[in-house]
């Protein structure tokens, strides 16, 4: 019954916003942060917690330790888009205006071909020199003997274009996020616990007709008319695909 409701909501909606968290990419082999087996629960082989390591102050003070953790825990160059990423791209082929708002930093939505992707926390795919701002892709990084990426032009540290702890979200991305959610006919919230602010607060801006929530565990209170699934995202999308045409 709820799958049919979801399908009908998709058919009725023109402007669709997908707000996704770590659960979107776990089926591509990328761990989340806060589950029992998540990144924040793993050993760092140091006196520092993962939260401390991915902070701006730690990066500035201990760049080698930061990048050891970064390349081991945050970068997955071989990861591929899963059914969820591909389904969202497919919706565009049905003449839907789809905006992806993601808390993930893996670049998989772009790899799947989605046209409009707003990355609230940036991406490990893009990197830039902190001295001259020269941009480098992940494949273009040159590491020194200690494992720190360096700019060939001036030797400056090349950092990932992500939002670390203690850093603010990009103002332009925030503005685009607010506009997209505020103007959407349909909002799909998936794979996020809605516990990370300010990102989670953006969901409250939605005033459209159809709200769909997909998460393995129950979320905080959502609209009484929301279509709620406590399941894997790909499992739900697969059922919708089988009923879509």
Describe this structure in words.
- The structure is a single chain.
- With 245 residues, this protein is α/β, with parallel strands linked by helices.
- The chain has a domain at 1-28 and 81-121 and 168-245: TPP-binding domain (Rossmann fold, 3-Layer(aba) Sandwich).
- Helices cover 30% and strands 18% of the residues.
- The protein contains eight helices and nine strands.
- The protein has helices at 2-12, 50-53, 56-61, 63-74, 83-93, 108-112, 171-183, 233-244; strands spanning 15-20, 97-102, 116-119, 122-129, 135-137, 158-162, 186-190, 210-214, 227-229.
- The strands form two sheets. Strands 3-2-1-7-8-9 form a six-stranded parallel β-sheet, sandwiched between helices. It has a three-stranded antiparallel β-sheet with strand order 5-4-6, with no helix packed on it.
- Strand 4 and strand 5 form a beta hairpin.
- Helix 1 crosses helix 8 (233-244).
- The chain is elongated and about 60 Å long.
| CATH-level-2 architecture of the domain at 1-28 and 81-121 and 168-245 | 3-Layer(aba) Sandwich
Low-confidence stretches: none
CATH topology of the domain at 1-28 and 81-121 and 168-245: Rossmann fold
β-sheet strand percentage? 15-25%
* Shape type: elongated
EC number: 2.3.1.286
Protein name: protein acetyllysine N-acetyltransferase
Domain Deacetylase sirtuin-type: 1-245
Pfam families: SIR2 (PF02146)
Describe the structure in brief.
The chain is of the alpha/beta class and 245 residues long.
Question: Which terms would index this structure?
Answer:
8 helices; 9 strands; three-stranded antiparallel sheet; Rossmann fold; six-stranded parallel sheet; elongated; 30% helix; alpha/beta; 245 residues
